[in-house]
């Protein structure tokens, strides 16, 4: 299929791999920021084809995985209310809160609905004027414009029974936090192409300069990933640390000005807690005060939340690239996709789920995890 097959062409992949091997003279460690890139790397075995010593560190760019436990517990508390219809993308329904998940709430009679767009949730609000309709607005800069537009539409159309439970996170402050960690081993970044298609690339050159790391905006297909890796290694070998855009077919340098205007109208920057990692200053968006009436946290007063994370789960270390998923003792034993202990095993972009889907049999055969 055009546009997919052409970025998975095995002959071109082999050529890029040959170039990567030719240019590499020593070990390097680089981080792919986005969980979608992690899945592509593990699914296609790209990390296993790289020169010895070139390591892919899996980053925290899975929105489901980093949504804080407090926010999941708030979602559960709101969804249990009899007057509420709680709408969410499907991947949030199995994310474990302190004690249960949205599927449990649904099975107990809560009105929890899967939607494919926040605008679908707004339609549910129109159709059910006697109910409070809440949409779970999580994600990176990619999902935020649609959520912002939905709140904007709710106000314009006078739909008062709609609100947003917001937990948006931002990539550039996370890159800064990773680089400032004393345990950081990252020498270069594959930046998330879809994030840059919204926000542009202007935030990244100062990060590359401040931390002395190459940052290459990269797509998601195998050839995109290989080209991102190749360009990162070329910069590292030459002692350069610059921003490069290896995904120009989707990323204009200026991003999407209409989406950015909508974001700055509806949201404001705030400190945000990332699940398993902690609070990163200025790393999230919340509704701006002029849209406070659409803030589900204020509408339902769900502040009194006490969280209880599984003591077995080491997803914080996975998300910071400190361990690989199979190095967690619970991987494939207490924790599986059917019985996940942490969000990184639930999400389609989670690193633990990727290793379980594509590496578990190899790891079992190698004796690195139990069968
Ligand atoms: S394997 Fe499961 S328990 Fe271990 S870090 Fe991943 S999600 Fe957490």
Report on this structure.
The chain is α/β, with parallel strands linked by helices and 371 residues long. Among the domains are: 68-168 and 279-300, Rossmann fold; 315-365, no CATH class. It is 40% helix and 19% strand. The chain contains 17 helices and eleven strands. Strands 4-3-5-6-11-10 form a six-stranded mixed β-sheet, with helices on both faces. Strand 8, helix 12 (222-238) and strand 9 form a beta-alpha-beta unit. Helix 1 runs parallel beside helix 12 (222-238), helix 2 packs parallel to helix 16 and helix 8 crosses helix 13 (257-266). The radius of gyration is 21 Å and the shape is globular. It binds iron/sulfur cluster (SF4). Iron/sulfur cluster binds next to helix 15.
Distance between the termini: 37 Å
How helical, in percent, are the residues? 25-40%
Query: Which of globular, elongated, flat, extended, rod-shaped describes the shape?
Result: globular
CATH topology of the domain at 68-168 and 279-300: Rossmann fold
Look at the structure and give the CATH class of the domain at 68-168 and 279-300: Alpha Beta
Count of DSSP strands: 11
Q: What are the defining features of this structure?
A:
371 residues; alpha/beta; Rossmann fold; six-stranded mixed beta sheet; five-stranded parallel beta sheet; 17 helices; 11 strands; 40% helix; 19% strand; binds iron/sulfur cluster
Would you kindly provide a brief summary of this structure?
This protein is α/β, with parallel strands linked by helices. The protein contains 17 helices and 11 strands. Iron/sulfur cluster binds at residues 312-315, 318, 325, 328, 330-331, 335, 340-342, 344-345, 352.
């Amino acid at each position: 299929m055009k546009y997919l097959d052409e970025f998975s062409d095995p002959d071109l992949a082999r050529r890029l791999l040959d170039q990567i091997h030719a240019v590499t003279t020593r070990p390097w460690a680089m981080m792919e920021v986005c969980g979608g890139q992690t899945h592509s790397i593990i699914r296609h075995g790209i990390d296993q084809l790289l020169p010895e010593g070139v390591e892919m560190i899996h980053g925290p760019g899975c929105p489901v995985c980093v949504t804080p436990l407090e926010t999941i517990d708030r979602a559960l508390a709101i969804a249990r209310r009899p007057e509420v219809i709680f709408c969410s993308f499907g991947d949030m329904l199995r994310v474990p809160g302190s004690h249960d998940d949205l599927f449990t709430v649904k099975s107990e009679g809560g009105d929890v609905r899967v939607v494919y767009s926040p605008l679908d949730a707004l339609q549910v609000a129109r159709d059910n004027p006697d109910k409070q309709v809440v949409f779970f607005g999580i994600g990176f800069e990619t999902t935020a414009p649609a959520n912002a537009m939905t709140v904007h539409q709710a106000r314009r159309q006078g739909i008062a029974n709609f609100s947003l439970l917001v937990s948006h996170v931002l990539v550039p402050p996370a890159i800064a936090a990773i680089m400032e960690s004393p345990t950081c081993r990252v020498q270069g970044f594959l930046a998330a192409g879809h994030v840059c298609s919204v926000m542009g690339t202007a935030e990244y050159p100062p990060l590359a300069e401040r931390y002395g790391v190459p940052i290459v905006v990269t797509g998601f297909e195998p050839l995109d990933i290989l080209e991102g890796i190749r360009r990162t290694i070329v910069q590292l070998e030459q002692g350069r640390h610059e921003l490069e855009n290896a995904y120009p077919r989707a990323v204009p340098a200026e991003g999407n000005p209409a989406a950015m205007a909508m974001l700055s109208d509806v949201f404001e920057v705030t400190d945000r807690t990332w699940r398993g990692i902690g609070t990163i200053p200025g790393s999230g968006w919340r509704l701006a005060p002029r849209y406070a009436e659409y803030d589900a946290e204020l509408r339902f007063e769900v502040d009194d939340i006490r969280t209880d994370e599984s003591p077995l789960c080491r997803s914080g270390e996975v998300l910071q690239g400190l361990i690989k998923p199979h190095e967690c003792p619970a991987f494939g034993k207490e924790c599986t996709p059917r019985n996940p202990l942490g969000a990184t095993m639930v999400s389609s972009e989670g690193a633990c789920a990727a290793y379980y889907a594509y590496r578990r049999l190899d790891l079992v055969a190698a004796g690195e995890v139990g069968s």
